[in-house]
Amino acid sequence: MTRPGSPTRGAERGTQTLERTETHRPRLWRVLLLNDDYTPMDFVVLVLERYFRKSEQDAQLVMLAVHHKGQGVAGVYTRDVAETKVAQVMAHARHEGHPLMVVAEPEAEA
């Protein structure tokens, strides 16, 4: 057993070089709300405000995109965050009896 302050046996002495690893930003995922004929528009706005922290005006714009274009981007996140938001919103929608569909898909790489 070595005592504090004493050199350890077999330890190399000299210069230590550190390798730098290249880091990349994580791939981002888009959370999309999909249109259906049954989920009320005000519920979609509520979801956008509560889970995606949209202002009422921004939530209205996304809701209208969902209604007119078939889908709208609720937000862009890392994969774990996107999947968590999808699960939370789907659970809330099911609890309230709405068939709202929410999906996450990877953003196109630049």
Set down the secondary structure blueprint.
Elements (H helix, E strand, L loop, with lengths): L27 E7 L6 H12 L3 H14 L1 E8 H17 L5 E6 L4
Antiparallel strand pairs: 1-2, 1-3
Helix pairs in contact: 1-2
Fold and architecture overview:
The protein is 39% helix and 19% strand. It contains three helices and three strands, in the order E-H-H-E-H-E. The protein is elongated, with a radius of gyration of 24 Å. The relative contact order is 0.23. A three-stranded antiparallel beta sheet has the order 2-1-3. The longest helix has 17 residues, at 79-95. With 110 residues, it is an alpha+beta fold. The model has no long low-confidence stretch (mean pLDDT 90). The protein has helices at 41-52, 56-69, 79-95, and strands spanning 28-34, 71-78, 101-106.
